[in-house]
Amino acid sequence: MGAYLLKLMIVLPIVCGLAWGSLMLWKRLQGGMPSLGQAQRAVRVLDVTSMGASSKLVVVAFGGRQLLISATRGQIVLLAEAARDEDDA
């Protein structure tokens, strides 16, 4: 019984640490990793804000305009459109 408790005291913190670390990594990468060649593309994602488990607000630069888009699992809706800032060009 003593050997079992000793193994449990050693393995349990390791498993808990790995679980915590993987959750933190998943949370950090949830928004997606930026693409290296994104500056040369016609469409650029400027900002993403999570609004829950399955919905996000996305600011996209396209054709000299900034588009605010609501993206869910079932649909994508254009919410607003604005002229693109000079410092973003």
Q: Would you mind describing this structure in some detail?
A:
By secondary structure, this protein is α+β, with helices and mostly antiparallel strands. The radius of gyration is 21 Å and the shape is elongated. It is built from 1 helix and 4 strands. The N and C termini lie far apart (67 Å). Strands 1-2-3-4 form a 4-stranded antiparallel beta sheet, with no helix packed on it. Strand 3 and strand 4 form a beta hairpin. 31% of the residues lie in helices and 36% in strands.
Mean pLDDT: 85
Count of extended strands: 4
The N- and C-terminal alpha carbons lie at a distance of: 67 Å
What is the helical fraction, as a range of percent? Answer: 25-40%
How many alpha or pi helices? Answer: 1
Classify the secondary structure makeup into a structural class.
alpha+beta
SSE string, helices as H and strands as E = HEEEE
Strand content: 35-45%
- The rough form would be described as elongated
Tell me about the biggest sheet? 4 strands, antiparallel
Low-confidence stretches: none
Strand order of the largest sheet: 1-2-3-4
**What is the alpha-carbon Rg in Å?**
21 Å
